[in-house]
Amino acid sequence: MSIIDKYILKRYLSTFVVMLLMFIPIGIVIDVSEKVNRMLQNKVVFKAIAIYYFDFTIYFANLLFPIFLFLSVIWFTSKLANNTEIIAILSSGISFNRFLRPYIIGATTVSLFSLLMGFYLVPSASEGFNNFRYTYLRGNGLNEMRKSSDVFRQISDNEYIYVQNFNSKAGIAFKFTLAKFDKNNKMVFKIDADKIKYNPSSKNYTMFQYRKRTLGLLNDKLEKSPKRDTIFNFDLEDLAPTVYVAETLSFGELNKFIDRERQRGSSSINTYLVVLYKKYSIPVSAFILTIIAVAVSSMKRRGGMGMNLAIGIALAFIYIFFDKIFGVLAEKSSIPPLLAVWIPNIVFGILAIYLLRNAKR
Predict the structure, then answer these.
(1) Which own/partner pairs from 333-341 qualify as long-range (CB within 8 Å, at least 24 positions apart)?
(2) Both 28 and 110 in a single domain?
(3) Contact partners, residue 62, CB within 8 Å, separation at least 6
(4) Does pLDDT of 1 surpass 80?
(5) How far apart are the C-alpha atoms of 208 and 195, rounded to whole Å?
(6) Is residue 153 part of a domain?
(7) C-beta of residue 312 within 8 angstroms of C-beta of residue 121
(8) Is 269 buried (19+), middle (13-18) or exposed (0-12) by CB count in 10 A?
């Protein structure tokens, strides 16, 4: 690695770290000012608040790292251009592609770090951040943590359950139905109960106003009981996982969870797939945004660094807009999640190629 490579790479990484250290405390201050009243009302202890802001730091650093990286590259590259350092480097016979090499090395370093964070560190931070937010900072947060009405799940290859309402705190589900089918998709039996309650001590379930209909060739068999204890091969927590459950799982756990939810016919499968695909797309965006930032800021402009930063901020907001819009479309529409998650990178990748060609000229 040459002196120029070390010089640019050092500026690349140090400016990125400084950008994070500058903006994250600002984000924490703004968050505290908005939510301090809710924390005081709920009498949250200082230790819980400290843990929350530690998780907050990791969560938002990972979420916004492409934008911080983008702005930091524009910042220090514009300084190089204004000091005519880039002109001196290119005048020495170094090609623009060779000039880009330390930037690509820096993007690779940041991307690998982001990938490992997304796989292992961010899920834990996301769980702590969201648990605190739903517990203390939202008016009806505990009830919003889970889908609590009209829950339908497939618990095995031929068994399906449905509950009209679900109370996770009490471990009670109302208007419970379990139906089992044979290989020909004909119903074998159906169980109904007005209420089902999980008993933690005995690890079983109590059904109230139990009714079971077993279908026969000539006659159906009916069973009724005001109360019936039984064991099921599902957990009440599985009926309604937290709305942010995918964000709290490590890479291996997330893949297993998605496979299980797909077998169960979960209506939220696209939401979980968006979380999975973003674990790959966010690190890749570091390369694309780095190339765009260098192409935009490597030439001197009349407006100086201010003009480059203005262009960079505008592009950053457009990227965020694309990322949010297509993420929501993947969850709420028929657009394939993989395509929706990667559209921002595809669009900005094309823009990066175009800007890079112009910068070389």
Answers:
(1) 337/270, 337/273, 337/274, 337/277, 338/273, 338/277, 340/274, 341/274, 341/277, 341/278, 341/281
(2) yes
(3) 114, 117, 118, 122, 125, 282
(4) no
(5) 5
(6) yes
(7) no
(8) middle
Q: Are 204 and 230 in contact (CB under 8 A)?
A: yes
Number of domains the chain contains: 2
Lookup: tokens for 1: 């690695």
Indicate the pairing of strand 159-167 with strand 172-181.
antiparallel
Residue 48 has pLDDT above 80, yes or no: yes
Boundary of a domain, candidates 240, 274, 297: 240
Q: How far apart, in whole angstroms, are the C-alpha atoms of residue 337 and residue 272?
A: 9
Among 205, 240, 275, give the residue marking a domain's end: 240
Distance CA 241, CA 246 (A): 9
| CA distances from residue 134 to 58, 141, 312 in whole angstroms, order as listed | 18, 4, 34
Token representation of residue 161: 């359950």
Indicate the DSSP class of residue 120. I
User: What pTM, to 2 d.p., does this model score?
Assistant: 0.76
Across all residues in the chain, what is the average pLDDT? 83
Rounded to an integer, what distance in angstroms lies between the CA atom of residue 83 and that of residue 343? 36
What the block records as the tokens of 19 is: 């950008």
More confidently predicted of 151 and 29: 29
Contacts of 176 (CB under 8 A, 6+ apart): 161, 162, 163, 191, 192, 193, 194, 195, 196, 207
Exposure string over 300-335, b if 16+ CB within 10 A, otherwise e? bbeeebeebbebbeebbeebeebbeebbebbbeeeb
Q: Helices in the chain by DSSP H: which ranges? A: 3-41, 46-82, 85-91, 96-116, 122-132, 141-144, 236-239, 251-263, 269-297, 304-332, 337-360
Residues 234 and 131 in one domain: no
Using the CB atoms, write b or e for 230-255: b if 16+ within 10 Å: eebeeebeebbbbebbbbbbeeeebe
As beta bridge partners, residue 56 has none
The string of DSSP codes covering 169-190 is: TTTEEEEEEEEEE-TTS-EEEE
